[in-house]
């Protein structure tokens, strides 16, 4: 047996007392320590559609800064003002899970002391929802205003298309009128041509020559009018039809663009999500913190270490005391030896 093991065996009672005391303390702490639970509030930040992606109405960094620098301290102060007899830090931590649009509030407390943390988290959530509600309403109104403008523009295009179609329909009536005028002018031209033919055979004096000249003018005027009417019918009306058809096609394209814009704004309104709390101060299903079994295990380890060290320490102290006692006895003997007798 080694010298250290011999010392421990000699002081085995002190070792057992030390081990028993430490383990008993560990068991007491494990049994008396209240169960601690986590109380968690999860907040989903509102979002809106922007192009082909969804973006938050406020960045998670800004929201986290508001919570840590404003809303949480204000909620703690309000609770302490309402409950001046309660003392505590009432710590509530805020964090953002990686790659998410969530903000999580977490507190640790026993069931008996959880009320302050629940209330602080509830007040913090209400303050944040009120703030984000204002931002949400501003964005919703802006999108609604854009939609109303797009709907008004679409209605203007619909009215314009109706006017263009009416103009297109009136072209048919103009065609009929021109055709009738052409027919009448042809009839007048035929009559004037027949009269001129007779006048040519009878033009023997000055008066009949003047009549022939007037008939020639009438024939030329009717031919010019006929040519003008035919040009209006065949060319002018066709150009007007082409212009109206182009205007109608352009109007249809503009209407399609406005309808697409209205659909896009409708989708934005549909995808506009308010900030919401997925759960407020939800208690964890299991206790958190150091488990009782770990406390007992640590007390066993610590007790075992001290049970080994205490006997060695006691033996060291005993040896030091024996050494000091022997030295004192030798000094006393030396003093007695040199002292002369009376």
Structure description:
The chain is α+β, with helices and mostly antiparallel strands and 342 residues long. It has a domain of 116 residues. Helix 2 runs antiparallel to helix 6 and helix 4 runs antiparallel to helix 5.
Chain-wise SSE layout:
Blueprint: H1 3-10, H2 12-32, E1 36-44, E2 47-50, E3 53-56, H3 60-82, E4 93-95, E5 102-110, H4 115-202, H5 206-271, E6 276-283, H6 292-338
Antiparallel strand pairs: 1-5, 1-6, 2-3, 4-5
Helix pairs in contact: 1-6, 2-6, 3-4, 4-5
In short:
It contains six helices and six strands; from the N terminus they run H-H-E-E-E-H-E-E-H-H-E-H. By secondary structure, the chain is α+β, with helices and mostly antiparallel strands. It has a four-stranded antiparallel β-sheet with strand order 4-5-1-6, covered by helices on one side.
Shape: rod-shaped
Rounded radius of gyration (Å): 54 Å
Tell me the number of strands: 6
Biggest sheet, strands in spatial order? Answer: 4-5-1-6
How does the helix and strand content classify structurally?
Answer: alpha+beta
What key phrases describe this protein's structure?
two-stranded antiparallel sheet, four-stranded antiparallel beta sheet, rod-shaped, alpha+beta
């Amino acid at each position: 047996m080694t010298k250290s093991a011999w010392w421990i065996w000699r002081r085995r009672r002190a070792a057992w007392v030390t081990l028993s005391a430490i383990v008993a303390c560990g068991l007491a702490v494990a049994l008396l320590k209240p169960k601690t639970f986590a109380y968690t509030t999860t907040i989903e930040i509102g979002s809106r559609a922007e192009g082909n992606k969804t973006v938050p109405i406020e960045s998670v960094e800004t929201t986290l800064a508001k919570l840590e620098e404003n809303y949480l301290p204000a909620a703690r102060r309000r609770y302490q003002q309402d409950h001046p007899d309660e003392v505590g830090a009432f710590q509530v931590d805020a964090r953002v899970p990686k790659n998410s649009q969530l903000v999580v509030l977490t507190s640790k407390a026993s069931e008996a002391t959880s009320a302050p943390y629940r209330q602080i988290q509830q007040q913090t959530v209400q303050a944040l929802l009120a703030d984000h509600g204002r931002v949400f309403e501003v964005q919703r109104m802006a999108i609604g205003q854009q939609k109303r403008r797009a709907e008004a523009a679409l209605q203007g295009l619909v009215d314009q298309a109706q006017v263009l179609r009416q103009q297109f329909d009136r072209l048919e009536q103009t065609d009929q009128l021109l055709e009738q005028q052409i027919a009448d002018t042809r009839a007048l031209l035929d009559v004037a041509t027949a009269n001129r033919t007779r006048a040519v055979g009878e033009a023997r004096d000055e008066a009949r020559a003047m009549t022939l000249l007037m008939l020639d003018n009438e024939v030329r005027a009717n031919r010019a009018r006929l040519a003008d009417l035919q040009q209006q019918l065949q060319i002018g009306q066709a150009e007007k039809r082409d212009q109206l058809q182009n205007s109608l096609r352009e109007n249809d394209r503009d209407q399609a663009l406005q309808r697409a814009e209205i659909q896009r704004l409708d989708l934005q309104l549909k995808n506009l999500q308010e900030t919401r709390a997925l759960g407020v101060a939800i208690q964890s299903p299991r206790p958190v913190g150091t488990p009782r079994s770990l406390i007992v295990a640590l007390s066993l380890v610590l007790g075992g270490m001290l049970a080994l060290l205490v006997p060695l320490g006691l033996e060291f102290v005993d040896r030091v005391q024996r050494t000091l006692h022997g030295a004192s006895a030798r000094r006393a003997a030396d003093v007695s030896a040199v002292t002369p007798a009376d």
